[in-house]
Amino acid sequence: MNCAESRLLLHAHADGELDVANSLELERHLKTCAACVAEQKSLHSLKSALRQSSLRYDAPESLLKEVRRLGRGSGGEAQPGIFQSLLLWKWLAFGATAVATVAILSRPEGISGRDQMLDEAVASHVRSLMAEHLTDVTSSDQHTVKPWFDGKVDFAPDVKDFAAEGFPLIGGRLDYLNGRAVAALVYRRNKHCINVFVWPATNTENGKRALENRRGYSVINRETKGLHYCLVSDLNEKELTELGSLIGR
Ligand SMILES: [Zn+2]
User: Fold this and answer.
1) How far is the CA of 3 from the centre of ligand 1 (A)?
2) How far away, in angstroms, is 29 Cα from ligand 1 center?
3) Which residues have C-beta under 5 Å from ligand 1, the single-atom ion?
4) Do 87 and 34 fall into the same domain?
5) Does the global pTM surpass 0.90?
6) CA nearest 223: which of 245, 207, 199?
7) Ligand 1 centre and the CA of 30: distance in Å?
């Protein structure tokens, strides 16, 4: 991938809309290209600036007066003249555009944020297998893996080894999804790897254990005891569901 191609993909990547293959290509390019990394950084700061500013202004009193005056008509009559109603429509159209812009920029976090987290969880699962960076701490001992996360994430993930149930704990890894630090617990089932991403519960799952398919991978989301567990694997649905019912129990 060259810089021109990378620049084309940076926006989609920042919005979490890039597929796994292109994401990996782009990230490979970013590892070797300071210029594109700088471009990516400025894109991220633009995005967070847009998210933080209120983007909402109260109309100045003079504008409100003018709109009211146009509504009444110059002589106080109820019907505005053609020119005046055109002006009024212009302001209304401007207002509608502003409202639409604000609506787009403040999409409900619960839906888009969740989608972004899950897409990035799948991408991270794929990356952890390809880059052979599966674990930062490699141990089947929950008493080694759990304290390893102390000070790295702002919550305490529930870490258990399920070797007796056929899902041995391999270790843990610090990961970032949608800009937040999450704990990744790695389990194995025969030759399959399972990443269990953990972050504080957002109460979007309402206690259900939802199984879905994303980009060909099985994904299970579960919220229990204040934590969100997101299991990602190419394991069959039945066995992943088995682990899903053990996690956080
Ligand atoms: Zn570049």
Assistant:
1) 3
2) 6
3) 3, 6, 33, 36
4) no
5) no
6) 207
7) 7
pLDDT in tens, 54-101: 655 667 788 888 888 877 755 555 555 555 666 666 677 777 666 666
Residues 62, 70: contact at Cβ < 8 Å? no
Q: How far apart are CA 216 and CA 196, in angstroms?
A: 17
221's enclosing H/E stretch is strand 217-224
Q: Domain limits at 25?
A: 3-52
Distance 43 CA to ligand 1 centre (A): 14
From CA 65, how far away is CA 210, in angstroms rounded? 53
- Is 240 in the same domain as 146? yes
The identity of residue 200, as a single letter, is P
Cβ contact 136:173 at 8 Å: yes
Containing 171, the helix (H) or strand (E) segment is strand 169-177
Ligand 1 mean position, distance from CA 31 (Å)? 9
Ligand 1 mean position, distance from CA 10 (Å): 10
The burial class, CB within 10 Å (0-12 / 13-18 / 19+), for 34 is exposed
Identify whether residues 232 and 184 lie together within a single domain: yes
